[in-house]
Specification:
heterodimer, A: 151 residues, alpha/beta, 6 helices, B: alpha/beta, Rossmann fold, 6-stranded parallel sheet, 6 strands, 52% helix
Chain lengths: 151, 139
């Protein structure tokens, strides 16, 4: 393999990203499909085995998507699913406190480089951004889109 | 001393009664209207109706000027969120959370919660203290 002056791989092939998605509801399912279809490996975790039913079988068969049953707020569940090795974790369950606990566990205990959490309460965003978590706020995004449409 | 207690379950109510009897000023936060009403009657108009895991509710309860913040909810992640708001948004010094799952106690401490009361461990120890002498008698 040819290495450039930075010592990085110079093969021209981008390394596959490993991504963890916590919560396989409609949003988690959509994110999993999108990110695995663009060539990444996605580990998707949910408490409820039924939650994975909307994932297309070809993605599961190709091993691009790995499903794991477990509680995203528990370190043991995350480790059993292999989440400690991912580059990126997105927590999108229906409950903000679950997303934030899972996200902080991933960020501060498992040292995952990038962690995003879905949080509906926009007031919480600045606080958690300061704590190293990237916050996705649906209401904020919607308002930006609406304002953009008015311009 | 001004204390905020989140959750009007048996623990929240008992701790509040003791704090009040000890001369502290206490405000409780309870999300369920029936429980809020019950505790408000019992303790004397000191219970705010609202979600303790929200900044606006904690603001209404006066968390800004609190010396002590105790979260007694049944879910560890809700206690974590309530305590982190009190610590980082309102800069309360004394933060206590109860935790049902011993696996979470270390995480909660790492996330800045000063004191984590591990309920499962306490109950287990209590049961052991009763049962251990019986085991000795058996020998």
């Amino acid at each position: 393999m040819i290495r450039n002056s930075d010592g990085n791989s110079n093969s021209g092939v981008q390394r596959l990203k490993r991504i963890a998605v916590i919560g396989c509801g409609s949003l988690g399912t959509q994110i999993t499909i999108e990110l695995s279809s663009s060539g990444n490996i996605v580990i998707v975790l949910d408490k409820d085995p039924e939650a994975f039913s909307a994932l297309p079988s070809h993605l599961l068969e190709s091993s691009r998507v790995v499903t794991a049953i477990g509680d995203g707020t528990q370190e043991i569940s995350l480790r059993q699913a292999g989440v400690q090795d991912v580059d990126f974790l997105i927590a999108v369950t229906a409950k903000a406190s679950v997303n934030l606990m899972s996200g902080q566990l991933a960020r501060h205990v498992m040292r995952i480089p990038v962690v995003m959490c879905l949080v509906n309460d926009s007031n919480l965003s600045p606080m958690y951004e300061n704590l190293g978590i990237k916050v996705i706020n649906p209401d904020g995004l919607l308002m930006e889109t609406i304002k953009g449409g008015l311009d | 001393m001004y204390a905020i207690i989140v959750g009007c379950g048996p623990i929240g109510i008992k701790v509040s009664e003791w704090l009040m009897a000890s001369g502290a000023e206490v405000t409780l936060i309870e999300k369920i209207a029936e429980k809020q009403k019950f505790a408000d009657n019992l303790l004397g108009s000191v219970v705010v109706l609202g979600d303790g895991t929200r900044i606006d509710t904690q603001d209404t309860a006066g968390t800004k000027r609190a010396d002590l913040f105790i979260s007694t909810l049944s879910s560890d992640e809700d206690n974590m969120l309530a305590c982190q708001i009190a610590k980082h948004h309102f800069e309360v010094d004394g933060i206590i959370a109860i935790s049902a799952n011993p696996d979470n106690a270390n995480l909660l401490k790492l996330l800045g919660i000063n004191i984590v009361v591990d309920v499962t461990e306490l109950i287990t120890e209590k049961i052991q203290s009763f049962v251990a002498p019986m085991l000795v008698e058996d020998l």
